[in-house]
Amino acid sequence: MHLVVCAKQIPDPDTPPSAFKIDEASNSVIPAPGISPILSQFDGIAAEAALRIKEAGGDDAKVTVISMGADSARAAIKQVLAMGADEGVLLNDDAFEDGDSYTTAKVLASAIRELGDVDAVFCGRQAADWDMGQVGLLLAEELGWASAIIAKDISYADGNVSVQRVLTDGFETVQMALPAVMTVSNEFGEPRYPKLPQIMAAAKKTVTQYSAAELGLDAADVGASGSRLKIEKLFIPETDSNVEFMGGDTPQEQAAALVQRLQADKLI
């Protein structure tokens, strides 16, 4: 059994707001100096799901982690390799830059076809930077495979997966024949934490790199050129606020002052 994990490197969510900058001319985020990007936490959970299926599947099961991005994305790949994945694939080409969910899925699908023998793909429920949650379903559409999203539990038996999905008002269980694409939610549980020997072993594992040409993709169909989504404006919202304290020697006087002010502003 061959399982694939899609992993994305994102800006560290713990970056101080003061270090967060936007280039409004190019509608892009300026990387915070001195703060390294990290693996999207939902993708770490997706890796955990794939590794549990691998462990239940026996010695013939294999996990490959794929990431699309610059050379720095190797760090995200190595993290999943340290968790227990077997091989890594980096999709690195200037043509892939500034793409949207559609072009991302297109590139990932081409890489999965290149691998040739994939049985299932695991994605995070959404990337923790843009929070769109679209790539998993678009990837399934590109591949023509069955899909299930926002999974809190996944089990495998006899060529089928049973997926328990999170709904707004409860849960549902669906069964699918492989091959299939699944997006994994945080309800699945925390991903395992690699120990030092696993981190050292990950450094020796293979990471294969592909360009657009090597995947048989036209540069005009991927990245910014092929995007269906066009960003009109990216900016940091203004959060100015005015605070006024209600005077009064007692709570009753303060409440009366508040009522008077709300009435004056025609809020009540």
The biggest sheet, with number of strands, parallel, antiparallel or mixed sense and barrel status, is:
9 strands, mixed
Order of helices and strands: EEEEEHEHEHEHEEEEHEHH
Q: How far apart lie the N and C ends?
A: 64 Å
Order of neighbouring strands in the sheet with most strands: 11-10-9-12-8-1-6-7-13
Question: What is the average per-residue confidence, as pLDDT, rounded to a whole number?
Answer: 92
Low-confidence stretches: none
CATH class identity: Alpha Beta
Number of helices, where a helix is a run of at least 4 consecutive DSSP H or I residues: 7
Number of strands: 13
Query: Percent of residues in helical segments?
Result: 25-40%
Structural summary, described in words:
The chain has a single domain (2-226), classed as 3-Layer(aba) Sandwich (Rossmann fold), CATH 3.40.50.620. Helix content is 28%, strand content 26%. It has helices at residues 41-57, 74-83, 101-115, 135-143, 196-202, 223-226, 251-264, and strands at 2-6, 9-10, 21-23, 28-30, 38-39, 62-68, 87-91, 120-124, 146-157, 160-167, 170-177, 180-184, 207-210. Strand 9 and strand 10 (160-167) form a beta hairpin. Helix 2 packs across helix 5 (196-202) and helix 3 crosses helix 4. 36% of the residues are buried.
Task: List its salient traits.
about 270 residues; alpha/beta; Rossmann fold; nine-stranded mixed sheet; two-stranded antiparallel ribbon; 13 strands; about 30% helix; globular
In short:
28% of the residues lie in helices and 26% in strands. It has 268 residues and is an alpha/beta fold.
